[in-house]
Amino acid sequence: MKKALLSGNEAIARGAYEAGIQVATGYPGTPSSEILETVAREYGKEIYAEWSTNEKVAMDAAAGAAYSGRRSMVTTKQVGMNVLADALMYTVYTGIEAGLIVVTADDPGMFSSQNEQDNRWYARLAKLPLLEPADSQEAKDFVVQGISLSERFDTPVLLRTTMRVSHSKGVVTLGERAAVPDEIGPFVRNQEKYVCTAMWAKKRHPVVEQRLLELAQHAESSPFNRIEWGERSLGIITSGITYTYAREVFPDASILKLGMSFPLPVRLINSFAEQVEKVLVIEELDPFLEEQIKAMGIEVVGKDVFPPCDELLPDKIYSIAVDAGFLDKKKDAKPAVPPPETLPPRSPVLCPGCPHRSTFYLLHKMKVPVAGDIGCYNLGCLPPFNAQHTMGCMGASIGVLHGMAIAQLPEKGAATIGDSTFFHSGMPALANMVHNQSHGVVILMDNGTTAMTGHQDHPGTTWSLHGKDVPHIEFKPLLHAMGAKKVVEVNAFAVAEVEKGLKECLDYDGPSVLITKGLCVFISRNPQPPYVVDTDSCVACGECFKLGCPAIVKSNEHNPKTGKAKASIDPTLCVGCDVCRQVCPTGAIHPPIGVERSEA
Amino acid sequence: MNKIDFLVAGVGGQGTILASDILAEVGMEAGYDAKKSDVLGLAVRGGSVLSHVRWGRTVASPVSRKGTIDYLLGFEPLEALRGTEFLHPQSTALVNTQPIPPVSVSSGDAIYPAKERLEQILHAVTANVYFVEATEEAIGLGSSKVTNVVMIGAFSALLDVPVEVWEKVILSRVPEKYSQLNKAAFFAGRELIQGARIS
């Protein structure tokens, strides 16, 4: 049988192929984005894949496809689930005509997220089955088995990974694609099932409750859940990636591994607990399993020793288990040697040539209070800019700016929001500002892509996941149609232009939008010859350092009067965006003499 | 079948993820179970990248424990130092000499450790340290982009896996038009290991 080394996300995409899924939707978000990218790249002929404008739209679309008889999948990162949830709730009531699987990639450790929410709770809240793969092989298999579970029980299925499952690679045995119909339709007109109006939804709720009981029954003997018997002195109940860590740290213990972690197999858990002396529940983040198992009347040790914060990596499990007396310290264990000194950090920064740089330089200079949003531009909250003062979730910036206005804050504020984020959830908030006669500047940082998550498309781009030259939405007419009277568009790489536009918008009495237009360097891919600093003209004033550009470095030469370091430019990093030349007060920065700029 | 654990440390953009993919796949082709896990900072360029790669009869966790890694591949000296707590006294470290100063250093807020200090720190953990000028070698071959394959080539000389397996996996992972360049990089790396050991 054919084997391949796949990441969890690639394996989920492969699972979608083998399961006969025909429609896959989602909104990009780390650590989930590679699922749809792989679907589009590897299985684009068999599966229609799209980046939808947001997670809820993606879920509605997948529901519509599943109602139409196509096996469907939605992907999201953990916080996107909050956006998707409204649609998830009704699909549990309606059920589906063809399998529907919702994939949430959670982020314990917050490698690229604003919180550490544990999306397993959504399974309990929405009342649908929850699958937790532990590695790439299971990630693929659980999609295939999840689709058949979905069709057998007439319910969407939630598949939850974490960053370690999504981004780790493992050996996967590949299978064939299930046979699926080419032709579908006519659309099923079963209103009592698919119209969630109160009179009919009321009849569906008992169906949901009954279905949960049947799923719990199914969980008792389902191959998703298995016991690995070892010594009976210690029994561990665990799920997902934590299973692999527990197996590593406790090679001799008995383990009940829950692949389907909601609804729980009560009899199986009881019987396991009866046959071991002590039960340990090891799970990352919240006591999701633990609380339910305790409610069964079983005594367990869990969150009283294992913290609910951060990843629960093997090293941490080991040291906690030793401290709590569940493991004997290995006699030959040598303490790991940490580096003897503090090493210089490698913090994330806006890339050289980033179109967002000029805006944050100016916001810092003009001391504007700024409500921020999610994207690369969140790096504007870091030094040297310190120019984003709030950031909560996708699309929050404009609503928070509105709140600052209605609170009658004496300063005029601004919101920073990217093009993709604006389509995702910024538009309703701007409509609200217009309608409720708010004021403040919405800075729409249009870099022509969803940059932070890996440069995906959105409704403003001329390409999509499945096509080139697609119709795109222009911001200016869109904003005018939304009732924004003051809309100024500037070139993000022209500092004076951005400054003038920003002042104009700040002076305007009402909601205004400043569009800072400039392509992400990974989209334009048009590097110019690196700039140079004329050391004699440089007075070491430090103005260019306020741009926080990784290409502008402190040179070994100093201003003899101030003792401050002069600037120099790292030619391997500079892409010649010209922004530093514009802010230099002495004209010391210039393009290389005698070298022509190239056109895109 | 022995368990072998690796750590690949570098800077985003250096091709360390491709290198650790190659390493994991070579393990699979050589008959091991293999897993790997990449730890990235924020999803932007230029950050620290740490990849765990594990070979064994069966591998459960994709992440190794501290003090248990057998081989460290440092694509950048400073990043190699961040991995030292995963090593044990019998570990082997292979480090590319070319520094990439982080912004904290170029902005003058921190100091990049001197080469002698780097060697000293690594040596304090293990006696088996190799330094190779992989970036220079790659530039000499025509592109700094093949630094990762030069490193893999140098590393391959330290492991008991047939050279054909390495070649096959590398060529399946790189664009066809760069096959010759990558092949040259791999064999140049294998040569580099001679005399690279620091004692």
Question: Care to give the gist of this entry?
Answer:
The complex is a heterodimer of chains A (600) and B (199). Chain A is an alpha/beta fold and 600 residues long. In chain A, 35% of the residues lie in helices and 19% in strands.
Question: What is the CA–CA distance across the termini of chain B?
Answer: 30 Å
Walk across the major sheet of chain B and give the strand order.
2-3-1-4-5-6-7
- The structural domain count of chain B equals 1
**N-end to C-end Cα span of chain A:** 47 Å
Order of helices and strands of chain B: EHEEEHEHHEHHHHE
What does this protein look like?
The complex is a heterodimer of chains A (600) and B (199). With 600 residues, chain A is an alpha/beta fold. Chain A has 4 domains: 3-221, 3-Layer(aba) Sandwich (Rossmann fold); 225-323, Rossmann fold (3-Layer(aba) Sandwich), CATH 3.40.50; 357-523, Thiamin diphosphate (ThDP)-binding fold, Pyr/PP domains (Rossmann fold), CATH 3.40.50.970; 532-590, Alpha-Beta Plaits (2-Layer Sandwich). In chain A, 35% of the residues lie in helices and 19% in strands. In chain A, the strands form 7 sheets. In chain A, strands 3-2-4-5-7-6-12 form a 7-stranded mixed sheet, sandwiched between helices. Chain A has a 5-stranded parallel sheet with strand order 14-15-16-20-19, sandwiched between helices. Chain A has a 4-stranded mixed sheet with strand order 9-11-10-13, with helices on both faces. In chain A, strand 14, helix 15 and strand 15 form a beta-alpha-beta unit. In chain A, helix 1 crosses helix 2 (34-43), helix 3 runs parallel beside helix 4 and helix 15 packs parallel to helix 16 (419-435). The longest helix of chain A has 24 residues, at 198-221. The two termini of chain A are 47 Å apart. In chain A, 51% of the residues are buried. Helices cover 39% and strands 24% of the residues of chain B. Chain B has 8 helices and 7 strands, in the order E-H-E-E-E-H-E-H-H-E-H-H-H-H-E. Chain B has helices spanning 16-29, 77-82, 103-106, 115-125, 134-141, 147-156, 163-173, 179-192, and strands spanning 4-11, 33-40, 48-56, 69-74, 87-96, 128-132, 197-198. Chain B is globular and about 45 Å long. Chains A and B meet through strand 8, helix 10 and helix 13 of A and helix 1, strand 2, helix 2, strand 5 and helix 3 of B.
